[in-house]
Design brief:
single chain; alpha/beta; 6-stranded mixed β-sheet; 14 strands; 20% helix
């Protein structure tokens, strides 16, 4: 299934039904009076978050979504039925933006969450609504109000607990395939990964979702390579695993390049908890590995992990380090929302 994380669609809510002009006409009824019913309300356009979707590919084939119009009123005081709503289903992590692609209309994060994007027009009053002692035979009614028309952008941001970042060919996809059942494309050339991949990882008794993000290069914030289009997918992560290829001639520069692009994209993203690791450690000698370890430790300010996804060296240590950060972040969120984590509640 093709991955699509951005789509532009047109929505329109339903028009309200017109009010009816009618008079009661029955045998032996001399003064029937007005009996025109009201029109029905037009349908709304809703967006709903559902759990069984993970891409916006459906919106490539359908870009127009319209709710049903309300039915006009009828005689004998019969009101028209309301128009059916239009429900647009999106995966968790989808943000809805206005046509300017900057104004946020809704942020769909939890399955079952719903938000109304366009309200249907109200139905018009029939002439029965206007009868009074001084106007016993009104011959006018209200038309239904028009619906709302919008062009909106859907932008999907993957909801993952941890994210893999690094230069192209740093071993991110290989790491993901080694720790989960995900099968990303793996090859010995840069930009093998062209779209984010997700995998469910089990570390001890803890499960978490790991996202593999396409590699960054210098100048990505200005559009070089794949640009920073996919960096939005790591905005919701709790921790980042930064892989640095130990076969690089200058691991310090490789580390700083990615950090610079993160800061250029979003300073808050650069402040996320980060675990630094040297990958492909089985590809160089111990002397060269020690030299690159010292260089990366100096520039990152932390002790890098040593791992090889092919030989599974250091994999468990990296997974447990990620798990510790995720558990701390979850407990912090519970404290902020109120109550001690794990506290009994009636």
């Amino acid at each position: 299934m093709k991955f699509l994380d951005q789509a532009k669609i047109y929505i329109k809510s339903g028009k309200g039904g017109d009010g009816s002009i009618s008079f009661r006409r029955e045998k032996y009824i001399e003064y029937g009076g007005p009996d025109g019913g009201d029109g029905g309300k037009g349908g709304d356009v809703w967006v709903e978050c559902v759990a069984n979707l993970n891409t916006l590919i459906d919106f490539r084939y359908q870009q127009h979504y319209k709710a049903k119009n309300g039915t006009p009123g009828m005689g004998r005081n019969r009101s028209g039925p309301h128009g059916d709503d239009c429900v647009i289903k999106v995966p968790p992590g989808t943000q809805i933006f206005a046509e300017d692609n900057e104004t946020l209309l809704a942020d769909m994060t939890t399955p079952g969450q719903r938000s109304r994007l366009a309200k249907g027009g109200n139905g018009g009053f029939g002439n029965a609504h206007f009868k009074s002692p001084t106007n016993q035979a009104p011959r006018h009614s209200n038309p239904g109000l028009p619906g709302e028309e919008l062009t909106i952008w859907l932008r999907m941001k993957l909801i993952a607990d941890a994210g893999l970042i690094g230069l192209p060919n740093a071993g991110k996809s290989t790491f993901l395939s080694a720790v989960s059942a995900a099968k990303p494309k793996i090859a010995d050339y840069p930009f093998t990964t062209l779209h984010p991949n997700l995998g469910v990882v089990k570390a001890g008794e803890q499960d978490f979702v790991l996202a593999d993000i396409p590699g960054l290069i210098e100048g990505a914030s200005e559009g070089a390579g794949l640009g920073t289009r996919f960096l939005g997918h790591v905005e919701r992560t709790r921790v980042l695993l930064h892989l640095v290829d130990c076969t690089e001639a200058n691991v310090a520069q490789a580390y700083q390049t990615v950090r610079g692009e993160l800061a250029a994209y979003d300073p808050e993203l650069a402040d996320k908890p980060e675990i630094v690791a040297l990958s492909k450690i089985d590809a160089i000698s111990k002397e060269d590995l020690q030299q690159r370890f010292d260089e990366l430790k100096e520039v990152s300010g932390s002790r890098p992990l040593l791992l090889s996804a092919v030989s599974h060296q250091g994999i468990d240590e990296a997974l447990y380090a990620i798990t510790d950060h995720i558990i701390k972040a979850r407990k912090q969120k519970e404290r902020e929302e109120g109550g001690e984590p794990g506290a009994w509640q009636p």
